Amino acid sequence: MSNPSAPAVVVGIDGSKAATQAALWAIDEAVGRDIPLRLVYVIDPLEPSGGDGRAGRQGAAHAALFDVSRAIEATGHPVKVETEVLRGRPLAKLMEESRSAVMVCVGSIGLNHARRGEGSLAATLAGAALCPVAVIQASPGALAAPKVNRVVAEVNNGSVLRHAFEEARLRKVPLRALFLRIAETPTESDDGNRLAQAQLSRRLARWTRLYPGVAVESAIIRGHACRYLAANAKPDQLYVTDSHAAQLCNVYVAGCSVLTVRSGNL
């Protein structure tokens, strides 16, 4: 039995490999919080059924949920799994889930490709959901949880930094903290870098005290984070950012997993 109003980590399932990988990635999120992992399959009544009819689509949904549940069970992690089949528009249903969810996870492909004509469901969800949203970069290899070897985040948003430190601690990986600056002229570069380094250290001081076990790497970069991601994003990175900034930058095409946080999501 599942309780949609109870706190859980919600994963959108659609039968794709990307969705299964997102569910496997989300196991640590649920175990770390001691809450259920809720797998949700949304049947869109407006999409063609392909001749299978309602019963066929219902059967396909239950089969997809069963397969993902088996994959989770095979990991041996002590996580409680809940499943449910819903009917409606996928974006609307996942938005409803975000009202009580601690986090919503989706694959970077799968839901995106399956819902042609309404843009990227993952990106739209991440920009409007009421909880953090993880868009997990699909791995072309074996069916396993995509690895996170580094968390990356800017330092100018306290909500983002908190989630970034939490993720780095949960996954036992270093955090790369980015400070963005633009040098007006070459002669101002040295002074600007010293000032930026002082500001970066000041903004990180509180968080390094709260998370002493997290190794922090800092970097001062010029321009917007979009440019940094375009040059440095890797599939094993998790980029944590504000949901509004993510929409402006369209970070979902950068080639790494993305966790978006609304400023009020603490």
Automatic annotation (TrEMBL):
Stretches assigned to the UspA domain: 9-136
Lineage: Bacteria, Bacillati, Actinomycetota, Actinomycetes, Mycobacteriales
InterPro entries, alphabetized: Rossmann-like_a/b/a_fold, Universal_stress_UspA, UspA
Annotated protein name in UniProt: Universal stress protein
Family of this protein: Belongs to the universal stress protein A family.
Pfam families in the record: Usp
